[in-house]
Amino acid sequence: MNTVAIVLLALAQDWPQFRGPDGQGHAKTTVAPQKWADGSDNIKWTTAIDGLGWSSPVVGDGKIWLTSATDGNKSLRAVCVDAMTGKVLHNVEVFKVDSPGPAHKKNSYASPTPILDKDRVYVHFGSNGTAALTSEGKVLWKQILKYNPVHGAGGSPVLVGENLIFSCDGADNPFVVALDRKSGAIRWKTPRDNASEPKKFAFCTPLAIEVGKSMQVIVPGAGAVQSLDPASGRVIWTARYPGGYSVVPRPVYGQGMVFFSSGFDRPVLLAVRVDGKGDVTDTHIAWRLEKGAPLDPSPLLVDDELYLISDQGIASCVDAKSGKPYWQERIGGAYSSSPVHVGGLIYFTSEDGATTIVKADKTFTKVASNQVKGKTFASVAPIEGALFLRTDTHLMRIEPEAK
């Protein structure tokens, strides 16, 4: 095997953060399972996970990491599972809290997804704390930034350079913060410019993008999306959508635009060009889409097409440049997890454990539908030769069916 092939194979074995290597739902592998069910041979192992958590599994160096809350949600834990065998390698209490605070009925106290960084893993529990651990489960540092999240933690961190960046969008005084990845110290803290919004809370995971030769971190929040300089926290541009709040979907980037949802009550999908400065509300919003816009699942951009799944189970494909719809189909179920793209196929996983697979195409083609027991709010994690799926009680490894 040549060097390039070895590097590509190594990359295909990693799913290091929420929504994968690029943070936008794309797997580097080209092969993934298409048919499975409880008890089928291609479910290679199923491992019980104590407590409850909706963090999605991340994978690196043959290990899976996720988080969970046990002991009446007072013990916030990092769990490491061997990717080949399903054996639990580490189950570490990171934070012990007297009261974890309020949470929405669809949320958990361990919903933010970990992020892997060489021999470290970063775990985030919102206002209950953020921490770095070694790959062997030793806690290196902890940082607690208190705020009132209203419905509990949701957004996951993103790593950019030396900074671990996440939003703290609570009931009042919301902000975005960067922690030093090595020490956990605060490097910068940027207040949100949404003082006019009556509801200020949001739960979005930032997305780091490269525009020209510069980096931007895109962070939707209540009433506006902001682009920040990841090194300093300086606001580069802002696009406003008054009345939007409780934003959950992570943005995606392509065609010179970012695509994201405006939040609850009446969600609108927006496309915003990223080359602006200052307030770009009147100049850089390219198009809007209301029908089929998601509240919780993130969008998925594949080439020139944008794929969406509404919380009510309506899947859509639209032209990313214009917002023109190609197809819209009801595939059934309720949805919170984000879709993934593997080898020309798109995987939509519903809250009741059903995964519908469709072709990434301008014409709707359903490939398969699969069902497992249990609730599923976490997004699936595909690597070369396997897909990891988390339910409310278990983690499972699913492999392609035998030829």
Oligomer description: single chain
Terminus-to-terminus distance: 24 Å
**Major pleated sheet:** 5 strands, mixed
Q: How is the largest sheet built, in terms of strand order?
A: 14-15-16-17-21
Envelope shape = globular
Q: SS-based structural class?
A: mainly beta
Q: Calculate Rg over CA atoms.
A: 20 Å
* Total E-strand runs: 33
Share of helical residues: under 10%
Please work out how many helical segments DSSP would assign: 1
Q: In terms of per-residue confidence, which ranges show pLDDT below 50 for 5 or more consecutive residues?
A: 1-10
List the helices and strands and how they pair.
Layout: H1 3-12, E1 43-48, E2 58-60, E3 63-70, E4 75-82, E5 88-96, E6 115-117, E7 120-124, E8 130-134, E9 139-143, E10 158-160, E11 163-168, E12 175-180, E13 186-191, E14 207-211, E15 214-221, E16 224-228, E17 235-240, E18 252-254, E19 257-261, E20 269-273, E21 278-279, E22 285-289, E23 300-302, E24 305-309, E25 314-319, E26 325-330, E27 340-342, E28 345-349, E29 354-359, E30 366-371, E31 381-383, E32 386-390, E33 394-398
Parallel strand pairs: 17-21
Antiparallel strand pairs: 1-33, 2-3, 3-4, 4-5, 6-7, 7-8, 8-9, 10-11, 11-12, 12-13, 14-15, 15-16, 16-17, 18-19, 19-20, 20-22, 23-24, 24-25, 25-26, 27-28, 28-29, 29-30, 31-32, 32-33
Task: From the structure above, extract its key features.
single chain, 403 residues, mainly beta, four-stranded antiparallel sheet, 1 helix, 33 strands, 2% helix, 42% strand, globular
